Amino acid sequence: MKSDKSRDYPLEFKQSDQGRCPSPSGMSIKSDKSRDYPLEFKLTPRGPSLSCESIISDKSRDYPLEFKHSDQRRCPSPSCESFKSDKSRDYPLEFKQSYQETAERFTVPQQNLVPIFKILEESIVAFIKNELKNFPKQQDHKETCLSQEEDADEKRSSSDAFLAIALQFLKRMKQGEVDSSLLNSSVVSQCAVKKQAHLPGNDELSLEHDIQARPERVHHKPLEDFITHQTNLKILEDDILHFAKNELQTFCKILSQDLSESSESQEVEMDPHEDENEKRIIKKAFLKITLDFMRNMKQEELANTLLNKSVITLCQHTLKSNLKTRFGYMFEGLNKAGNPTLLNRIYTELYITEGTPAQVNCKHEVKLIERAFFRPTKPELKIRREDIFKSSTERDKPIRTVMTEGVAGIGKTVLTKKFALDWAEGSIYQHIQFIFPLSFRELNMLMREKISLVELIHLFFPEIKEAGIHTFEEFRVLFIFDGLDECRLPLSLKTKEVLTDVTEPASLDVLLTNLIKGKLLPSAWIWITTRPAAAHQIPPEFVDLVTEVRGFNDPQKEEYFRKRFTEEEESRRIISHINSSRSIFIMCHIPVFCWITATVLEDAIKTNQERDLPKSLTEMYVYFLVVLSKVKNIKYDGRTDIDSFWTPETKDTIQSLGKLAFEQLMKGNLFFYESDLTECGIDVRAASVYSGVFTEIFQEERGLFHENVFCFVHLSIQEFLAALHVHLTFINTGVNLLAGEDSAPTTFEDFHQCAVDKAVQSPNGHLDLFLRFLLGLSLETNQTFLQGLITVEGSESSSSQNTIQYIKKKIGENVCIMKNNNLFHCLSELKDCSLVEEIQAILRPGKLPADKLPPAKWATLVNIILSSTEKLDEFYLNKYFESDNAATGLVTVIINSTKAVLSCCNLTDMSCSGLASALQSKCLLLKELDLSNNDLKDSGVKLLCEGLRSPHCTLETLSVSGCLITKEGCADLVSSLRLNPNHLKKLDVSYNHLEECGVKHFSAGQKDLKLALQTLRFEPSGSQFLKPGLRKYACELMLDPNSTHKNLMLSDNNRKVTVGGEQQPYPDHPERFDVLEQLLCTDGLTGRRYWEVEWRGKVHIAVTYRRIKRKGDNDDCSLGKNDESWSLLCSDDGHSGLHKNEVASISGAPSNRVGVYLDWPGGILSFFAVSSGKMTHLHTFHAKFTEPVYPAFRITEPTGSSLFFSHIL
């Protein structure tokens, strides 16, 4: 009862709970002077406790980790007290100023540290060498540590720290027996000292008992052998000295940097295979030695600073180590099956793009996937994972808050785990001191608690609490909040309740709200992931950057299936089958759906059912349920694969899950708790053990608070089971759950029409996929698979036909592209493609009869264009038809394009009202609109300006050149720019009759307003441009006799050319074609020009540069067969375009009168069929003309073929 001096180096264990219960359990009446530097072992099952308390002194107590603001109530201080002195208590880890104050006050220029560290290095090197020389003396334990002097005690403290280092280096040298011998020598020595000093205690008993239990460890032979070999000692000495010098260099860097910089260079290169805990022991022990020597050198403040910064470093190291353990591995599939795989090995880069905060929405996830295929290939900013918080020149402020959207199963959570893992492994963002990944799923458990931000961090990251860090203002911190869509907290970013103190308790919703808004810990970075449906919870003004995870692109899809099906022919068939089904192809954008598809197709191949591979979503999910039922029967119930799919247990499980799926879908819940399952009669434990179906399609996750959270593997599975439940209930009971459980029995036709109406009326489309499944389940092919669950009815065929007609009617009534798109998918699920086939039949011969198309067929054409595999970057209306009806019918395509070219499409003011409505759409993607050369007039421009002045209009380029506009139209355009001045950058109003007044309108507007307008074209201008159509650009042309082949005869004042019966007596000329029957006009053309040609026989109507070769018959001389000429081939068989010897076929009957329009500055050369004053577009070449072009012709048929210039009125 005198002292606990003999207490050895307390055993501190990895992940032990010492931070919560560190207090000693007993009392010494004299001293705890002998408490030694703590030995820390890996994964020892329990922590230590002191057995006695000193009434005299705690002199020997080693260096406890105590920090400013530590929570004494939760983490009590050690109970050993000294009633005499605490002189022997080692320097505690106490931050007496804030971290930043300490760093600023004691940061020392590196040049001033060099002499100090030179002396320090010399002293420590001498100390290490001396300690190694003393190893032989360990045999004589009677001579160790008997001095009662304080200097000797302090020296022993450093010696024990060195002993810890030596032990670890011996382990690295594979000298396990030497390591044990050296440890036992030290233990026996300390026991002897205690006995000589008459210091009994529980520690002594436990140490002796440990030695007696392992008598072989008391023998010192291995140590004697080791130290007698000087080579071994030399290797050990070199290794330790190398480590020490490197560590001292690191300490010097730490002291010469500020706090935010120091963490980037504090890691010391160590053996990559070394245990993290062993590394921590060595680093702490050497820090102890360094601090002792600094204090002996009277460098107290320097030691103080090094202590503060090093503790932060060690804490960060522990956090990184834990994150590597937590995120280093992941399961492929479900957590309960399979073996974990290294995340770095299986991670595939995801396609991440940058959006804007205004793009948050609540659309159905499958609709958003499909919309990705409708988007044009406009330049998108792809963001690498490691660049997500890096500022760019396009952003006017630094990034603090990032929101990453993505549909379920797309890879958002894995993305954040990979980011945290990369940080922990030191590959990215090393200027961040701490990353705290949190999930809303776990935060939901605290929704009724009041907690401070510091307490929240300590709760989820106890290593921060153990380090005693209670303030984060001086650190760069990143919070990752995963799964906003799972949040059940009443987040309200509009709240006026302000929280600024990280230590002040508050409700979790208030805490998170102020953290996101930047009121609380404004220096922190925030990263939130969410499904699109929940993104609106964070207003755009609080989000600096929105990113979107797109999942698999087309090559990645193929890569997935090639890895899953290793036989080349097999994978080729699978990929070909997936590409043949639009619905399946789109859904494979999601990695989880690829897994579902692979599961189904693998079973189909094994059971030789390749002829009946699923071709629709409903078939895929029905087959998927069958496959899982078969697995359950074989694996869990011991049945054969020829038994019935649907056992009574499986039926009950599927029906219960279907009820849960439907009820939660109608409530909008994607995640639910055990109480939700109980309400639907689901026994979680029994189902998870006995039902393979349950465990495959349902996920159960256990959080920090041990409360289970459930969800379906993917939203589509929830919707499929919900549809199955509704369908099954209607068949078995006649009850239409969509109309209410009290609804009267009805027919299948009314049942389906009710479902269609419900889905169409849904504001966010949450029933769209549900509707596809519900209608698909009515087909006989799917009911065959579901025998035993669904009673086969004989009236489905007629009901399906009635449903198909009802859907077509709805398609004609709808104006929403996405709702119509879903209805087309519904027709596909019902195996009806009649609308699409009708439109494709119309498209084959050429132009559409636009004036005769009903609304449903216009909607079908929109769907065909938008769902085409061709990228929709630039949309040309004249490819389909040139009329007001065409512009109105295809306006949905226009707003979903980046650039829409409606030039020369015979538009009038009738189409401008629909275009104005399109420009006001919130979904507008259009950036460039070309309406040039249409007879819009001032009345059309006035209507168009209704859209231009809308704040949703983000149009950047507008051309109304040659649209018969006068000064009145100019005034309307300027007025619209006043109301929406921030987007339009280029405006072309040339080739109109603006007059001086109209020009002044624009000039005044540019001077008075802060317009984004950078380019304004209003010349040329004049009354001659008020002629309708392209005739305003008409020009007079003359054929050039000097270029005319001698077989061609000119007439009508050189306006007509005919193939003659004999050669003409033209004089020789260097510009004359000598082999090919070709000729040019006299004048080269620039600007805008229009002319018309009438022809007979077989001719080429072309333009060319003057430098085209004239001698010979090779491609350099032939019109259209080189890069210097562009030609239209005309014959009784039809027309075709020719440039660079590439032929462009043109459908439709030939026209003997052809109009040619040249827009030289715009790089456009267009050909039109002219008949009875009407113009029909034939073909357009796009080129960047670099010199004047000359009209040119070639006549290839024998005598009688001719062409001449028409008179244009």
From TrEMBL:
Keyword Cytoplasm in annotation: yes
Any one GO molecular function term: ATP binding
Basic and acidic residues compositional bias, start-end: 1-17, 30-39
Alphabetical list of InterPro entries matching this protein: B30.2/SPRY, B30.2/SPRY_sf, Butyrophylin_SPRY, ConA-like_dom_sf, Leu-rich_rpt, LRR_dom_sf, NACHT-assoc, NACHT_NTPase
Subcellular location: Cytoplasm
Alphabetical keyword list: ATP-binding, Cytoplasm, Leucine-rich repeat, Nucleotide-binding, Repeat
Every NACHT domain range: 400-534
Regions crossing the membrane: none
Region annotated Disordered, chain positions: 1-40
The B30.2/SPRY domain, residue ranges: 1017-1209
Presence of keyword ATP-binding: yes
GO annotation, cellular component aspect: cytoplasm
Main localization (coarse): cytoplasm
Name this polypeptide is given: B30.2/SPRY domain-containing protein
Species this chain originates from: Poecilia mexicana
Lineage, uppermost ranks: Eukaryota, Metazoa, Chordata, Craniata, Vertebrata
